[in-house]
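Final report, Chapter 2: Outcomes

The project's central promise was a pipeline that accepts a single protein chain and returns its three-dimensional structure in a standardized token representation, suitable for archiving and comparison. That pipeline is now operational. To close this chapter, we reproduce one record exactly as it appears in the project archive, with the input sequence first and the structure output second.
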Amino acid sequence: QNISYIRNMHLHDVKGGKDHSIIGSGEIDFPYYISKLHNMDVIYVIEVRPKEAAYKSLLGLKSIMGNNGDGV
């Protein structure tokens, strides 16, 4: 696998064919992918709009990572 080459990820969800949805609100299994990258030094870029949706995505990502924001 090439997982060791991942340095950054652009994150957003997909919901009913609608791209760039709030993280955790759609069809992507974020816990699975985040668990694969848990111990790696990866930069996450949240790609949703407006900023309120980006904030909700940040909260969702923190919840998925199971922490209080350390590393996010």
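Archive annotation: The helical segments are 30-37, 51-65.
This record, like all others produced under the grant, will remain available to the consortium after the project formally closes.
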